[in-house]
């Protein structure tokens, strides 16, 4: 039995919550995964996983064994990278997750830069607005916007995204164009709410270096960035979004920026990864590339991002 391979299979089962998912992600026959776990448990003399018809759970011994496996595998990966060509040309699967708009409009269009530099890294990119559980879902790195971060993860600040306040031309014809925060009386907002926590977000403005929260009446509330934008284009009220997400709509006249003199606060964008991935060469080069990408003074990034340092 290859003990390191058995540990790798065990950790993947824990992270993905099942033998079949682990086998698929490791591109192994499902029977081989089952055999390896049985051999590992026999070698250790303990049961690591509690199997039922519906789910897989860790035993007490398995819960104690899992973090040790994670550390050993991370140390092994880094040691091999130091003494092999992988140090300069890392290889293997890298699972990342990011908001759909960031991925579609910023990261994926620039991705050929990264894959040309690191051709042996295979990327699996999840695009969605919901927070993912990195450990449970087996994700190596995530990009998240906003100040609410997970203290259990390693955080690498990337950029401060510029945000703008927008409305559709039809909405402004009906309700007028506000020239100050005081003019917002009688206006509507499209409300954004979290599908996970249920938290609701109104409008915020930086007035005299202080953040002022404004809650306006609403007809529509949505829980996705694309839906939030679509509701604004349909004329349901004011929204506040990162500039990159509405740049094309503003250029085409489908949306209009308002209250530019009192902008919304910036939105921090951060890369996060579990502590046990801190030594991973694949994670490190990807996050370093993201920092470079966000700092590029190209036309594609005019008003989209401003370096956070």
How far from one another are the termini?
48 Å
Number of strands: 16
Q: Tell me the major beta sheet.
A: 6 strands, mixed
> What's the shape?
elongated
Strand content: 15-25%
CATH topology (fold) name of the largest domain: D-Maltodextrin-Binding Protein, domain 2
For the record, what is the CATH homologous superfamily label of the largest domain?
A: Periplasmic binding protein-like II
> Cα-atom Rg, whole angstroms?
23 Å
- Please give the domain count: 3
Strand arrangement across the biggest beta sheet: 4-3-5-15-6-16
CATH architecture of the largest domain: 3-Layer(aba) Sandwich
Q: Classify the secondary structure makeup into a structural class.
A: alpha+beta
Into which percent range does the helicity of residues fall? 25-40%
Q: How do the SSEs run, as a string of H and E?
A: HHHEEHEHEHEEEHEEEEEHEHEEHE
Count of helical stretches: 10
The CATH class name of the largest domain reads Alpha Beta
Q: What number is the mean pLDDT?
A: 84
Low-confidence stretches: 304-309
Domain HTH lysR-type: 1-59
InterPro entries: LysR-type_TF_proteobact-type, LysR_HTH_N, LysR_subst-bd, WH-like_DNA-bd_sf, WH_DNA-bd_sf
GO biological process, one term: DNA-templated transcription
GO molecular function: DNA-binding transcription factor activity; sequence-specific DNA binding
